[in-house]
Amino acid sequence: MSIADLFLWFFGGLLPLSAMAYFLARGKAITSEKNNIRMHSRPGFYGWYTVIWVALPALATSLIFSIGHLFHLFSVPATMLLATAFALGGAGMWFALGHIKADFRARPAVEKVMRGVLLSAAIISILTTLGIVLSVIFESIRFFQVVPVWDFITGTQWQPDTAFLIGAGRAESVGPLMFGSLPIFAGTFMITLIAMLVAIPIGLFAAIYMSEYASHASRGRLKPLLEILAGIPTVVYGFFAAITISPIIVEIAHSFGLEADYTNALAPGLIMGIMIIPFISSLSDDVIRAVPQSMRDGSLALGTTKAETIRHIVLPAAFPGIVAACLLAVSRAIGETMIVVMAAGLRPNLTANPLEGMTTVTVKIVEALTGDQEFDSAFTLSAFALGLVLLIITLMLNIVSTIVVRKFRQRYE
């Protein structure tokens, strides 16, 4: 029996068994109420209590067998796993149905289990984050054993060709490894800056218009239209940037006597800014509308204009939420890959000219992890080092923004 068949039989049998347990328990509770027996909880809670006793033993059994197989402790046939899980599920249903009585507190029991499930979900999220960070750190340490940290952070040349020669057994004919990440991070920040210069003004002004000036009908039409931009695939944006925007930028640059590459940083930056407008406009609109109307009425009653009320009252009150929306947009821009590959190119280039080709961290990570190198080669491990530095930079930005928002909130209060 294959893994796909095992999952099909397991969940295909567990779901009907759980549904049958729910309706049997709920029907038993309803019958008791019709017989003028006052039950402690609503019938639905008895149904969910029975579902818990069916599902948890079966899932626990499959988890134990999976862990034993993963660590090579023991291995059982798939048929035995299915038989054991369903037998325990049936026994749990029989046990739970026997507890359905007038004085049984089903609701507290169900809520206690749900609190445990929610706590488990939170713990899994934390452990997953910790696992991601540790995996990046450990692989980055392996890379920094080959390439010094200072050379990686401050180096201006990214030439992984030497890693290819070393992997081919020609280490004696190559020079030192050149993995200077400064041009890559410079390209990342340049394209992100261009995107934010487009997205923040347009997104914030659109949010102010929709929340403060537009009628209810106009807002109902405009907001879905803006949010369509977030649903367009990034490859479509990449085609548009490479085929339409880049040639236009080149022609405009030539008209001013400037040289521009067809793979430049300006085109993906502009298109990326258009793409992330909904992240700022939609969230900022919700935050601005959440400002109490009494604050607006009080400001207008003192004789200020609508524009002054927005500038001095509404926007300061909504500032923390607006900053959060901008941070989300920055994260989205930093993590974008397809638009950069199609419109900006793959060449690391340390320059302040947005008309030249550049690349970003995410593009180089994809290039390193999808190449033909061995996993323990310097070129492949460089992806983890790039991810670690990007993670640290993003964490520092979040810390700084949190401090700024907290100080602004205290001053505003």
Supply database-style keywords.
mainly alpha; single chain; MetI-like fold; extended; 413 residues; 16 helices; 2 domains
Describe the overall structure.
Helix 2 (43-70) packs antiparallel against helix 3 (78-98) and helix 7 (182-213) packs across helix 11. The longest helix has 39 residues, at 106-144. With 413 residues, the chain is an all-alpha fold. A two-stranded antiparallel ribbon has the order 1-2. The chain has helices spanning 3-34, 43-70, 78-98, 106-144, 149-154, 161-167, 182-213, 216-231, 234-255, 266-275, 277-289, 293-301, 306-334, 338-343, 361-369, 378-412, and strands at 158-159, 178-179. The model has no long low-confidence stretch (mean pLDDT 82).
Layout of secondary structure:
Blueprint: H1 3-34, H2 43-70, H3 78-98, H4 106-144, H5 149-154, E1 158-159, H6 161-167, E2 178-179, H7 182-213, H8 216-231, H9 234-255, H10 266-275, H11 277-289, H12 293-301, H13 306-334, H14 338-343, H15 361-369, H16 378-412
Antiparallel strand pairs: 1-2
